[in-house]
């Protein structure tokens, strides 16, 4: 290589190294931003019960046709995740719900099917390996609580107060839902 070509070759390598440094610095800044912003909250919509609304009783049936009742107050906070066996988005979010269920030991996670077809739900539980989770069918509960779309989650505290709600599409949405509920409960305690 002679004169001009050698200089352009060296300049090209210097620019490449500078570009690598800029990309690494940018990646670090994005990581810090993601850490500071935290998980995204569940997308809150106008449907569903109002935040702060007190529920007195929840009813449904298990896929084995046994009755399911919850009367408040109870010993643990609940996260009710409304799903449908026919919902493709619900199928995509189920691994995240399972992870949330396994990691959150102080919160009880319950799947609520908005379709009351027993055989369909039994097949869905077997196909998606949901035997470890509490799974309840209650189309009526979905209608009574004005749940218009799934996957939808409600955070209900021990007294039956809806502390957070919204559409959930990933694990971060579920964590954000619990963070919103904790903030709501702290504010409520300060006001009392």
| Sheet with most strands | 5 strands, mixed
Number of strands: 7
Low-confidence stretches: none
Round the Cα radius of gyration to an integer and report it: 24 Å
Please state the structural category.
alpha/beta
In order across it, which strands form the biggest sheet?
Answer: 5-4-3-6-7
Number of helices, where a helix is a run of at least 4 consecutive DSSP H or I residues: 5
User: Helix coverage percent of residues?
Assistant: 40-55%
Order of helices and strands: HEEEHEHEHEEH
Morphology call: elongated
Structure commentary:
With 192 residues, the chain is an alpha/beta fold. Helices cover 46% and strands 20% of the residues. The chain has helices at residues 3-37, 88-103, 118-128, 139-144, 171-191; strands spanning 57-61, 67-71, 77-83, 107-113, 134-137, 152-156, 162-167. Strand 3 (77-83), helix 2 and strand 4 form a beta-alpha-beta unit. The chain starts with a helix and ends with a helix. The relative contact order is 0.20.
